Amino acid sequence: MAAAAKRRAHARAKTLGALTARDIRSAAVLREQQEARARLAHKEAALNAMVHANRLATEQVLVARADANDAFDEAVADRRAHQLRKTAKVGVPAVRSSAAKSRRNALASVISKNAELNQNRCMQAATNREAEIAAKVNAARRLAAETRLAEPIE
Fold first, then answer.
1. How many other C-beta atoms lie within 10 A of the C-beta of residue 92?
2. Is residue 95 exposed (0-12), middle (13-18) or buried (19+ Cβ within 10 Å)?
3. 81, 99 contact by CB (below 8 A)
4. pLDDT tens-digit series, residues 27-71
5. Which of 40, 94, 111, 130 is deepest in the core (most CB within 10 A)?
């Protein structure tokens, strides 16, 4: 039995030890393919990082441009309103329009503030209602438990 196991071990060692040139080339090709995949993954990661950085930079530039445009528009509107106030007589449509615009803005702010207050009141009322209902439910459960305990067991 030991001799047979020895023969099998020698045969297996001989088979494993007899690497052919084809096996060696196959291992080398596989290693090259893995290295190529790793290089490609590294290049893709670097490209993704560069694209992300470019997107962030572009977004920052766009935000800066939008801020500059807003500031410019406000400056133009201020200069125009100042010029109109300086040269206009009472009753000129542009002055009336400007006054109506400021009144509309004031009304909109009052309406939004009132809406906020109303929303807060509604949320408080809902909370109070829920608390009252929870108290009633707890009281009912407590009374039900007391009546169950008061009844004799038959």
1. 13
2. middle
3. no
4. 788 889 999 999 999 999 999 999 999 999 999 999 999 999 999
5. 94
